[in-house]
Amino acid sequence: MTARLAPSIAALLLTAALAGCAGVGTPPPVLVEIHDGEAAGGFEPSTITVPAGTEVRWSNAGSRRHGVTTEPLDAAQEPIVPAGAEGWESGVISPGETFSLRLDMAGTYVYRCSIHGEIVGVIQVEEQ
Ligand SMILES: [Cu+2]
Questions:
Q1: 63 in any annotated domain
Q2: pTM for the full model?
Q3: Separation between Cα atoms, residue 101 and residue 90, nearest integer Å
Q4: I want to staple 123 with a disulfide (CB 3.0 to 4.6 A). Which of 8, 54, 109, 127 is the partner?
């Protein structure tokens, strides 16, 4: 009896596990627009709070080339990212182009435009 029930119980547990995964799911991507110049707002929004595992998409909404990097302007300083997390350097993002990145590690990330260093953004990643 027990032996016969086992497979169906296993199937039920598997179904529950899959439903649980679907319930938590992948958080929806979050869009950050890049605007020309600090006066125009720079990163919009400049500060975001997202759950771990979120894909952040930067979209160049301006007419100049931009980029996003965690490398500090002052090369002597350390990037501000959570311990154990990697920073990034997008390379050039031309007008109309996007750059995406999935952030899995919780903590604070500070980044800037790699071309216009005065434009800064902050991402707060929270444990899911
Ligand atoms: Cu820029």
A1: yes
A2: 0.79
A3: 9
A4: 109
